[in-house]
Amino acid sequence: MTIKLTNYPADGQIDMRIPRIKCKKYTMHTTLVSRNMAVENRSKFKSDRSPPWHLPLLFLLGNIVAPMALAATPTAPEETPTPLSVTVEGVQDKLLENVLGYLEIYQFHDKDAPSPARVRYMHRSAEKQIISALQPFGYYHATVTSKLDKTQQGWQAHYHIVAGSAVTVAHIDLRILGAGKTDPQFQKALTKTSLKKGVALDQAAYEALKKRFQVLASERGYFDAQLKKSKIRIDPHNNLATIALHFDTGKRYQLGEVHFKETKEWLSPELLQRFVEIKPGQPYESADLQQLQGDLSNTDYYQQVEIKASPESAENLVIPVKVKLQPQKPRKYTFGAGFGTDTGARVSAGITGRRINRHGHHYNAGILISQIKYGLAGEYIIPTGDPRTDAFGFRASYEDEHSDTRNYKAINIGGFYKYRDELWIKTYALDYRVERFELSGDEPTSRLLIPSIDWTRTFPAELDKRIYATDGTWLQLRLRGAHDALISDTSFLQPLISTKWIHSFKNHHRIISRATLGTTWVDNFDALPTSLRFFSGGDRTVRGYKYAVIGPLDDANEVLGGKHLTEISLEYEIPIKEKWSIATFVDYGDAFNDSPDYKTGLGIGLHWQSPIGPVRIDLGHGLDQPPGNNVRLHLTIGPDL
After folding, report:
1. In the chain, how many domains are there?
2. For a Cys-Cys bond, which of 270, 383, 582, 622 suits 387, CB 3.0-4.6 Å?
3. Mean pLDDT lowest for which of 21-30, 157-166, 230-239, 582-591?
4. Are residues 117 and 153 in the same domain?
């Protein structure tokens, strides 16, 4: 059977209200209930005559014989479910997707079919549904050849579609009126739309452009915006269409003063205002309000941040911003346990004093115990400038490491100042460090006053985009040193550059590369403590080797650590299913004094995207390992950048 759309109005013109494009077809079943569904017969016998004497006897016999007769009647066998297969040919991509969404019979594809009458009814309706599904994309001359068969395998419905020529846009009139006429975001939307003169009519693109205008108006403060004209006129005889879409943004609203209200007095108004980048009178933009909410939520000060900026409360198009804040509990306690292939089993505990006073002072303290190291650390932080990123603080720590290659005990006391400079987080610090370390059987003690500079740049800056990064970079520049004229046992200067780069391809494969270069100028290397020397090998350096086993050796083949460091890594990751991927890698590096003896590690890995960052299980083989140490397991957890 072939059906073709041929009925047009006499004048050859169709004025259309655009039908909604369907991604899924939902069938609405309407049940009609009669008002007389239940009618009770209330009539009574009015005859004075008594019923015949034989009626009770007949009633008794009926109750005995009828059940016996029903029991003797054979029961009809239950019908075996019949599968239904639906095939659609002739269209692809978005046309096929919309056809399947419209096609009611397709909801039973590869499922048990309903009754034969229902199957035939849906088949008769299919051709009209297919034609309706193609029209939003400009195909008004489609033909459908349909066939329905009942075989031993079940029902088989087949539809072959010839879409024909699409309606072409002959004239298009897209206009932005009002204050948004010069808004670059509206101009960008006009430029990016696929609605152009001479191309096939695409009503989905037309609806998408209308929706984009409305979303932009809401996001950018055009709260009085409205569609002035929205029409598509189609001439099916000539296969042409004209489009008119006029969007009037009206005037743009502005943001006013930001007013804070705390459910409990927590931070000073002066400190709260330092979180605010909104200037009174600036054009409304929802992203500015979202940033303010995010900045306050990301601190440890507040557990709930509610922002209200309603156009109904505007005066002269200026909207006041009201922020309601609910403080966190004064202290936070953390406990953790885990295992690392570098550190072995470990446990940790910590406490954060979220708020010491109204100026936002706070502190952190914690303890870490692992199989090779334990330590205590604490810091007191005073917000300065921009409280989101800028702070001055004091810190103190105690470390005790006793691994196969590094043995030292150190006390560190110091202060620091950090702030954001565009994309850089810059930290300047001064620490006094006392360290006792093992060196070829001796245990010297080192005392150093160490000024340091640390600049870190991460792109993208948003944390959620750095946990599992599709594209991004991380760069760290560090310089530290000491001078024996300033209460130090030796003089040294140590620059270090570390970087990481991630890139994703269209097939979602990723390249992950990293590199580290460091060097040390020192008067007396023997006086340089272990913690300030360079070592390589382990989970985050050269895989296939144990933690910190790569470096210069003494006469007893003990690793001393080196003056210089070079590490390079290249990894290729391939997704295999949702949140899982496999990887192959090569690591290359050495810690050395005079000339390098580079070590190479090769391996494969299985990675899982956890909520806190990728969990990486890697097997590495060190090409320069002694016999018997061929493969080493490496486990790491944490954000990509």
Report:
1. 4
2. 383
3. 21-30
4. yes
